[in-house]
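Standup notes, structure subgroup. Blocker cleared on the L45E5XJ5 input:
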Amino acid sequence: AQPGAAEPVPAPMRDLVWGKLNFLHTTDTHGWHGGHLQEPQYSADWGDYVSFAEHMRKKADMDGVDLLLVDTGDRVEGNGLYDASSPKGKYYYDIYRQQDVDIICTGNHELYIASTADREHLHTVPNFKDKYIASNLDYIDTRSGERMPMAQRYRKFQTKNQKLDIVAFGFLFDFTGNANNTVVQPVRETVKEKWFQEAVREETDVFVVIGHVGVRMPEFQTIFREIRKLNPLTPILFFGGHVHIRDATAYDARSFAVASGRYFETIGWMSVDGELERAARSERSRLSFHRRYIDNNLLGLHHHTGLNATSFLTEHGRNVSAMITKARTELDLDYAFGCAPKTLWMSRSPYPGQNSIYSWIENEVLPDVAVNPRRKDVPRLAIVNTGSIRFDIFKGPFTRDTTYIVSPFLSKMTYIPDVPYAMARKVIKLLNNAGKITASSTPPDNRFMAIPEQLVIHESIINNEVSFASGDDLGGAPQKPLGEGAGQRPRLTEGYTTRDDIGNDGDDTVHLPVNFYVVPNCIQAEVDFPSDGEPETVDLVFMDFITPWVLIALRLLGGEYSREHVQLYVEGTFTELMAGWIEKSWPKRC
Ligand SMILES: Nc1ccn([C@@H]2O[C@H](COP(=O)(O)O)[C@@H](O)[C@H]2O)c(=O)n1
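Run returned:
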């Protein structure tokens, strides 16, 4: 863990179930490779994960089974370790590559900005050479204009110990917001490609499909059906991501799919046991699958390896932690802009409400930062999409790191001047409709303006009772309090209490449940409105990211506006404006 990180906390644990073929899975880490310095249950860092994987590989070798590491993209954008440097990722690429990942693919965040896609192609693809898979993604070299696969389309390899044949794919969901130096092929088209049809005809023991795709999204179903058509008995294992939740499901009795959360809070675990070798395969052979969502908690990592603080860190892992410390120091990530007077939640507290981060932005930040000196006398509606805010703010120092954790994007505030108020006031309602504004595919679903979790979670989840009291949250597993005296009831921390299609025993750590309040896709502040009556026209101010949705909403309301009408409203990114507001408005020291 990093110096100054919260001390890990003991908690009751569920063990990992090993099989013949085992996997560790990370997804949507978004630059959190230094761990969660303010949250004890997730405060291990990438160096600890390197140590953990080394021990787990050793155990696999000793037991004659196999362990593979998987990463399903969105490694960038969302933390100072990646975002605070110039160029972005100056330290991150070298830190990330220290983990020996066996199968890796791209997420949408590697592709929003052309320079990010360039760096992915320049650094991560060669760093992982034959491990990187891009089944439906091409890269365009903007200097030569040459279009090429981002990486190999699929990978066939043998596992180390049992020599199991694996055919692996690496997909991205049907993403349309990518920069023009990349091309994402819709999955339904990719599966018709000659190379794919040949790959699914390869003799193999297991198919592994990794993807920056939610395990309930149609893209995975399409791939599953296409492989299964020709391979009725072969195990097909899916590793997904993108929607930032812990989730698992099975598409049939010989398939299994796991998604492993977000922000390096979770290290996913999947194991498969039974007759995996194709020579032994028959209608009668049975497979068993297990999943665990491992909290990125040092004490939990000790527990799963049977080691302790003295024996756990490997030399390599320790060195990686030191690389992170050096980068964090050089980037001055602990520099505090101000002191957050209280914790502001994205989803744990209702919106509107006094502890909601969105209410804070709407009521306090926007009225101050949505100001264009040349148009300061024009009343305006300022709209921010809730998906642009990526994390909670904890009471205490608000640092350079926190800035990027909360608001990592380069989005700016843009506007359309002098929109009739009668029309402008109705825009927010259309943006906040569930589903799509129109039947056409552009812009995509309105929910893409909100946080990714809300692609899956449509209703608030309110836990009035602590389920641990009944004991059944342990799923029948023996209770193993770490670091607590015998007979003492362990103290529980708040955290994940996952229910997936397999049951409610997926989390490796028993937590107190937390609430999840759904929030609208967008929030809006009325700024400098007349004290009496309504304005005739307003400036309609909004994050540039949501321009396609705003234009469609205006069109539906009878306003013929296009991209030419959209202008920059305030200099600087929203992130810079927010950090500036904090510096000015919150006490410097805690
Ligand atoms: N400039 C941007 C880019 C993205 N968003 C929000 O992030 C969501 C995607 O997040 P994932 O981690 O799931 O890929 C997207 O749907 C937007 O809500 C943004 O606000 N601004």
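Discussed briefly. The chain is about 25% helix and 20% strand.
Next: hand off to the docking folks.
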